[in-house]
Amino acid sequence: MISFDEFKKVELRVGKVLTAERVEGSDKLLKLSVDMGSEKRQIVSGIGKYYEPEALVDTFVTIVTNLEPRMLMGLESQGMILASGGHEGVTLSLIRPDKDMPTGSSIS
User: Which of 16, 43, 57, 69 is most buried, with most CB under 10 Å away?
Assistant: First the structure.
């Protein structure tokens, strides 16, 4: 369990996927360019078994923006896309706003 004060440290924002492509050598990783409003970020996400890259372009996603960057297969990932499921035969579903929101909008 974490305290509410610890949870408040997690920064969640709305991002819009600008480009998406498969990462060579991986069947699950996708490299995404995401518009965060004031900046663009590269995010490497393990959603490639559940989503075709072209289906993600121009869609809105929820991003954890204050994680330290991480290297995945030689590519820097500058955030995490939130999703549910994706284990033991369960499909995966992205956590998204149900209405168009300005990119970079804070989620609280």
Answer: 43
Phi, psi of 58, deg, nearest 5: 70, 15
Residue-wise over 3-38: b if at least 16 C-beta within 10 A, else e? eeeeeeeeebbbbbbeebeebeeeeebbbbbbbbee
CA–CA distances in Å: residue 13 to residues 37, 49, 74, 77, 103: 10, 24, 25, 16, 8
- Can you list the domains of the chain with their CATH numbers? 4-96 (2.40.50.140)
Model confidence at 75: pLDDT above 90? yes
Residue 60: is its pLDDT beyond 90? yes
State the DSSP code for 9. Answer: T
